[in-house]
Prior knowledge:
Shape: globular
Amino acid sequence: MKLTKNRVIFIAFTCLFTLSLYYAYASVAATSFKYFGYGDGSPTFFHIFSIVFFILVPTLLIPVSNPRPSVYVVTIIFYVVYIPTLVILNDVGLAYNVEDFVLSLVLFVCFSINALFTRLPLFDIRKISILGIPTISIVYALAVPLSILIFYKVGWNFSFVSLLDVYSKRDAIKEMGLGSFGYFISWMANFFLPVIMARALVLGNWKVVLAVVMGYSFLYFTIGAKIYIFSLGYFVLSYGYYKTLKNGNYFIPLVFSVLLLLPLLMFGESLKELKFVYEGVISLRVFLIQGLSLAVYSDFFLGNQYTYFSHITGVNLFVDYPYSESIPMVLDTKYGLGTFNAPYYASDGFTSFGYLGMLIMAPLFSAFFYFFDLVSRKHNEKFVLLSISVFVVSLSNAALATSMISFGGVLLVIYFMFSVDKRMRIKEGCK
């Protein structure tokens, strides 16, 4: 494989991110949050070699300067899940029972499959038109009444709160018992608002952009989930990724490195509390907790019964589910870490068949996003990347089926499948 200038830039910034992550792990996870089961941040030479090798090879496999949405998905997974998991698995002081090298090797194979799928050639598929109605019109037609319904259902819980006081919001909503109505809120945040925001940003319609910002703000101050307030940052991330595609894909690792290293500037007694909150919300929740998930799932399922995919609705009609609660709740009872969600490597793969389950899920995960590449192929690249910017986040901490159904992945596929227009041009709009 030819080592181009862009590839060298990509590798260099990946190294920067890895060092930044290791700093955060050693200074945050291994100290302030060691009770989660993190080690002491002191791998052996062999573990360091494993980490370097298993990170370096994917930097040669992931396409650079390629606008396919699957590449964006794989890139996010690479930095938010894959690298943190390798660093944590190879810490000899980790408080969980893991076969570190074997687990790292299988994870490497799975991610390599994900990366190689993004290199498969694409072909044209026939689109379907719904009575000639522009798909974006259907999105608006559904979004408006859905917004009114959400406001009517949960608007009573709206009030201004800080990041530290959102738990009372969540408790109030939880006591209310939204049930299946919760899907509507999730679809609004992960599908309707992102598609509308993406179109508005491409067209420069700042009134609609403002309306979407207000929509996310309302959801945050009502539901209390931090993802809603961070959603605006996800649009910035995907936009920056798109704008720097031709220069080595350095934007994401650069931004993530800055986020991880920012606590270095927070010194002094006056910033001590702010630093601790920042490390808990950003360093731990965004990066380090995802890396711990495979270790936790491995520790539990090496000594307990696999689910054989029965945790997935539909499969459980044919295979008996062996537990009385959902897997995250079972793990909370066992380890006391809260409802411990995890990306597909753990939540779908290791949960179902251990290492074999991971190897089964890797091509299934990749096949979905290859199909997404196909249905979105003739669309404006910026619009596509912006429209999936919030949905992609769910892939870092949820099972694949959950991401598809609860977080709107299937809705995104349907949207692009039924959209028959050619690439969107700013003056023409998106139909």
